[in-house]
Each structure stands twice: as C-alpha cells, then as structure tokens.
Design a protein that fits this description.
The structure is a homotrimer of 168-residue chains. Chain A has 168 residues and is an alpha+beta fold. Chain A has 3 helices and 9 strands. Helices cover 21% and strands 34% of the residues of chain A. The termini of chain A are far apart.
Chain lengths: 168, 168, 168
C-alpha cells in the first residue's frame, strides 16, 4: 500500500484566528428534542436543515452536535441525498438483513413482541442510533455531499430525536 | 417519499428551566475504567446499570458519556435487551461474517496470530468499539427499549471499557 | 448467558490523582484540518500517529478527539494494523457490498453521477465517517492492538479529515 502524503493545515474555523486553543469562553450545553411522524415501514428523512437550525439557535460556535434517536428500530447516519442512491440504500439494507429469516424475535414461542420486527432491530443496530458531528463557525461541519439522514425501519410511527449542542 | 411533519419542542432536560443555553457552570471530566471477565466466544452483556451508576457518581447533569472498549475484537452498541432478540443478534453477526472463510489473518503463511480470530476482528470493526450517549438530568438518556450492550467476539477474556463523563 | 463479574477501578488518567471530578480548569476546543492524497480505489491508511500529534499540540489532557471525514465515500474506524488482517478487511467490505449489483446510482437513467460509485457510498455509510475517542493523559486512549484507520473507498482522490480536540 503506498504511503500517502499527509499535510496538516491550520483550520479557518478554529476558536481564534491563529488556530491556537483558547481558554474557556463559557462552555454551554444546549438540549432539544425533535419529533416527527413517519409514513412508511422503511423511510429516509433528510434532517440536515433542522439540525443546523438548532445549532444556530444554540449560539455555540465551536464544539459538537450529538444526535441520539430514542428508538431501537431507527438509525442516524450520513450519506449523499440523491433519489437514486436513497433507493440503493433501502435495497442494500433490505438485502443485508432478511425480513423472512426465521428470527426468534418474531416467533411467539420465544417472544411476546407482536410487531415481527427483528429485521428492523438488526438494521437499527447495524447503522447505529447516534451520530456526533463537529460544529465550526456556528454551523454543522459537513462535506459538500454529506447530508444527515434519519432512517425509519419500522414505521409508520411517532419518532423522537434528542439533539445536544455543546461547546463554546 | 412523503414529507414528515417535524416539530421542535422545548426539552425538560435543558440546563435551565427555560431551555436556553447557560453560561459555564463548571465543565468537568470524570474518567473511569470498568473491567470484567467474559465466559463465551460470543457473549452479550447488558451494561446499562453500570454506566448509569458511573454517571450518577460523576455529579454531571448535562453532557455526554463516552464508552470505548480497548479491544479490537469487541463492540459497544444499543439494542433491546430481550432473550429472543439477543439470539437473533448472535445469529445475524455469525452469518454476516463467516468464521470459516479462508481469511489471511488465520493463515500461518501470512499471519503470526494464533487465535484464528479474523471473524472476531471483522465483527468488532462492523459494530464499532465506541458509543457516545447524552447525559440529561444526571442520567444516561435512553429510549424505553434501549439498553447499552457490550459484545465479546473472542472470549473468554478479560475485558476493559473506558468510561468518560463530561459536561456540567 | 453467564453473568460476568463487573469491577470498577479508579482511573489513573482522571483529572486529579483522587479520580474525583475537577471543577473547570479551562475548557478548550482545538480544531485542525488534515488532508492527503490516496492512490488506490480502496485504500486503508493508519492515521494514529498524526492524530496523536494533533492531540499533543492541543495541550488538552482530558477530553475527546473527534474525527470527521468530509466525504461520503470514505470511513474512519478502529482495527489492528496487520497486513494480513487489512487484506481481510478489504475482502470483507468488497464482499459485503457488491460493486456489480445494478445500483440505481450507477444507472444514467436514474442518476447523473458518472463515477459508478454506489458501492463506495454504501461502504462509507456502513462503516461511518466519524469517530470519537477519549483523550487521557494528553494522548489518544487506545488499546494495545487498536489503530485508527482512514478508509478510502473511491480513490485516488484528495481527502480531508476534520479533527477536533476538546476538554481540559
């Protein structure tokens, strides 16, 4: 494997113009709860604008925004928001975890869950229910093609996302 | 894809009653190391109560708790703690990464590892060895069905988890 | 499943010798951007030393270092840095997400992307573009066999990683 050239550059978004760490300018924690209703069993939502709105309201310039979905059959992750690719994301996750496999969670002999949603649990576990992103210059740091995606794997349901912005 | 209705509500767990960010009330970092012995090659442990105990001891009310397992053949993630589903989690991970595949890590011609545990490494990598959760009202924020699960993929072993609570 | 014995020990890396939380000693955020050029379509880079160098420069002793790759067709994760195992990681990810599947993102009828890189997007999504690790004693906390790996899934390209160290 070839060695890549690594270069460190000063960040324009550092707390001060010179990029050096700044002593404490008032550490803050800003908590919000966001909720919505989903309409399909598997559904992908672009929540980037909503998260940026909360970051702006927090008044925090440098730090992180932490997202945590409060449901095991959901996930939060990053990808490009393009219709064709979203179709592929759904196909891939449907293939990667079979709905028809004889999961014990769906079998009344072993489980009292009536939703037959083992596949939803396994998809949520695989993709993860938390996401932490940097806040720089009072906005969520994202690459050109990165969107924040909330995934419903067992809808339609009411869903809740905890958002926490912390930093200075 | 239908547009979902998004609603932002004030969080009861915000630093002050009015939910607005509070200036610095003493940022703290509270570090602990937790360890235990596992008994099976693939084993799932519910560590939710232990993490909550550490969060309570930290005295931190708002912030995050960060979990980091110090071993590549383990993982930390969230799921419902139900016997039938835990059986499915083990089945799924066993299927998703084959133990019998001719992995180079298990081949003495390429590797000096004597544990034949390529599958354990790949499962650990897929599920991740870190998890960051919000702390609100001096407890770990978790949905009704969310438990924190530590996964052993190459036991029995002694295992170590680094826990860090930070915030105000 | 046998119950494992859990033991909490005092952390040598706690802010003070007695391991109790310390009031505010100057919360800081230290931002850097690291970039490099990759040379192959799928390439794994060991970035552990570079991250430790940034953590040392930050002057932060206790806290976290957050890594965020700004590209959807990349990932950041932990694994052992061993040639045989890295070969297995590439094999596993190549198997887990097929390049040849008729993905819509690669189909001009549905997509204007000319890179035919649906597999790269799905690999990046599966492994994740963010990683948060603890900082203790002014170094990145890592187990004996843990290295920080940056994965290129659609090279050769110029790539950018945002690094943020925060804490006291």
């Amino acid at each position: 494997m070839p060695t890549s050239k690594l270069k460190v550059v000063e960040s324009a978004g550092a707390p001060a113009g010179d990029g050096r760490p700044q002593p404490e300018a008032g550490y803050k924690v800003f908590n919000r709860i966001v909720d919505w209703i989903t309409h399909e069993r598997i559904e992908l939502l672009n929540i980037t604008d909503r998260i940026n709105e909360i970051v702006r309201k927090s008044g925090i310039k440098d730090g992180v925004v932490h997202l945590q979905s409060l449901h095991t059959t959901t996930a939060v992750f990053i990808n490009e928001w393009q219709d064709a690719l979203l179709h592929d994301v759904r196909s891939f996750l449907t293939q990667a975890v079979s709905r028809e496999h004889p999961w014990r969670h769906n079998d009344p002999e072993y489980s009292d869950c009536e939703r037959s949603n083992a596949d939803s649990h396994l998809r949520g576990m695989l993709m993860g229910q938390t996401l932490c992103l940097q806040v720089r210059n009072a906005t969520v740091l994202l690459g050109t093609w990165q969107s924040i995606i909330y995934a419903e794997f067992d809808g339609p349901r009411n869903r809740t996302l905890a958002v926490q912005v912390s930093g200075v």
